[in-house]
Amino acid sequence: MKISLTENQKQELENQHKLERDGKVRDRIKAVLLADEKWPQVQISQALRIDESTVHHHLKDYLSSQKLKSRSGGSESKLNAIQTKELIKHLEANTYPSTKEIIQYVDDTYSIEYSQQGMYCWLKTHKFSYKQPKGVPLKENAEQQATFIKKYEEQKSTLKDGEKIIFIDSVHPTEATKISFGWIRTGVEKMIATVARRDRVNITGAINLESMEVATKDYDTINGASTIDFLKRIEASEPNTSVFHIIADGGRAHKCHEVGVYLGWKDPTNRQYLEDHHELKLPSKCTVLTKKMIKRLKKIASKDPTLFCDLTILNKHKIKTQELLNSLRETERHKRIVLHILPPYSPKLNPIERLWKVMNEQVRNNIVFETFKEFKSKILDFFNNEWNLIKDKFRSRINDHFEKAKPAF
User: Fold this and answer.
1) Are 336 and 163 in contact, with CB atoms under 8 Å apart?
2) For 130-154, how does the pLDDT look when each residue is reduced to its tens digit (9 = 90+)?
3) In angstroms, rounded to a whole number, what is the distance separating the alpha carbons of residues 405 and 292?
């Protein structure tokens, strides 16, 4: 195939080759220039390390239309404008695992056939890429999360001297080997020894985003008692702090009766008062109180009237436990600790969740531990010692730049 270029054409191609970033386009330009220099196609294919037939097509494209791009704007789509719009909308709402399923859908819906390469090109042209979707909790509430973020920002901006905001949570790393991504030589299948032991460490932790200081304590079990113990430790660690605003999820260990009594929450405190002082244990909040229990409550009211804000509640025919609790007196809250509960299913609103991920990256990923003692020692050493050396590196990652909830579709 004979190609003869003028000096101007050669110079233009040389200049284009210098500026072109696409390696395939540069190969086309080189093939044309070498053919002009009377190189045979077999020699060009050897020099460019491409197939001889590919060289032939490159030269043919250039002779017929001076084509140097792999696609000069692409061929006309088999789908019309309306069908294209419908398919784009369908693919935005439905995630297919491969082009085969999309090809089948197009054939079933429009009776139009595509090859896998053709569908791949169509998807790329219409700005689709093959990637993994991001999971979100099914029951997360975007409105509740937005309300929390607004209140948090208001609280942070009006924080008084001596007050601090602390995020707390619990984590339960197991001794089982945690396999994760890493840089491995191409073509090498790297093997990592694994153990399947389920022994775990139960850790409650707290982080102050202003100082990036972390406090942790391991417990046999994470429950109300461990939460109270941890809150006492936080309080004792900083005697000069007037108020700790503790932010935590709504797990049972944070919202249980014992914690409510310790913090002075109204309902748990009044429940405990009735049990301790009048030997009356109230049933669950939705239960209708028995006539016998209402009679006892009336006697209690006659002896301890300050317990009630509204005595008329006892004249009702049916009283639910929650109604009774609502009618009881306000209680004195804990003077130094205020617990703020996050909206349900909102791990993205607790920055300490990202600290747990960093711990896994630094201590657990692709590491096998010989004994549980070694495993536990490494975990605790990370929080007690190593974190203080690296904490400032993670300010851009562990912070309160909350990601707003996005709807699943």
Assistant:
1) no
2) 988 877 777 788 899 999 999 999 9
3) 49
